[in-house]
């Protein structure tokens, strides 16, 4: 099974409401992935201090070292995500050293747990071919569309070595092939 981006904005909204209803941290996790394009393994260990300065202002950038590539990543958090984080941190009275996505067992929730919850939500709202990479792919897919098809910038953000890899990764090639099959009809 190839994991796909979520191409339907209504389904994105439904999935968010499902997850947020289950636990606010899962709603935030979903939004975090959709708004940053980060891998789930880079999102889960984040702490409040990674996002906020000691005087409780948003940092200009979220700066982290990617687990997979060991490369430094610098992300400007958008207003939609800032609002979500602010609400979440206030509601849960989180402190600088607290994980954004705490586990009941201590530490932060793991990849398997996050996959299970996200997958359950995807199935509940009828999204097929979903995996944790779907969040990253969804960010890439919608950013590609909204940026007037600036594949070079997305390729660079994902650290891909070719445009072909990025287009395949975000599922654009499949979209284009699907369109071809509807062009010619006998």
Automatic annotation (TrEMBL):
Top-level taxon of origin: Bacteria
Pfam families: Phage_integrase (PF00589)
Residues covered by the Tyr recombinase domain: 1-182
InterPro entries registered for this protein in UniProt: DNA_brk_join_enz, Integrase-like_cat_sf, Integrase_catalytic, Tyrosine_recombinase_XerCD
UniProt keyword list: DNA recombination
Any single biological process term in GO: DNA integration
PROSITE patterns: TYR_RECOMBINASE
Molecular functions (GO terms): DNA binding
Record flagged with keyword DNA repair: no
Annotated protein name in UniProt: Recombinase XerD
UniProt organism field: Acetivibrio mesophilus
């Amino acid at each position: 099974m190839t994991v796909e981006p979520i191409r339907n904005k209504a389904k994105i909204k439904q999935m968010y409401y499902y997850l947020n209803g289950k636990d606010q941290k899962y709603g935030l996790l979903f939004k975090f992935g959709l708004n940053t394009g980060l891998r789930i393994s880079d999102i889960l260990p984040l702490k409040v201090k990674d996002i906020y300065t000691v005087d409780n202002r948003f940092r200009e950038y979220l700066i982290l070292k990617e687990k997979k590539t060991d490369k430094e990543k610098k992300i400007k958090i958008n207003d939609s995500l800032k609002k979500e984080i602010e609400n979440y941190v206030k509601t849960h009275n989180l402190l600088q050293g607290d994980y954004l996505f705490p586990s009941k067992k201590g530490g932060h929730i793991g990849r398997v747990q996050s996959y299970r919850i996200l997958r359950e939500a995807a199935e509940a709202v009828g999204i097929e071919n979903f995996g944790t990479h779907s969040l990253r792919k969804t960010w890439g897919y919608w950013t590609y569309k909204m940026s007037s098809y600036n594949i070079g910038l997305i390729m660079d953000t994902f650290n891909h070595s070719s445009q072909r890899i990025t287009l395949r990764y975000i599922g654009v090639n499949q979209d284009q092939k699907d369109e071809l099959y509807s062009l010619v009809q006998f």
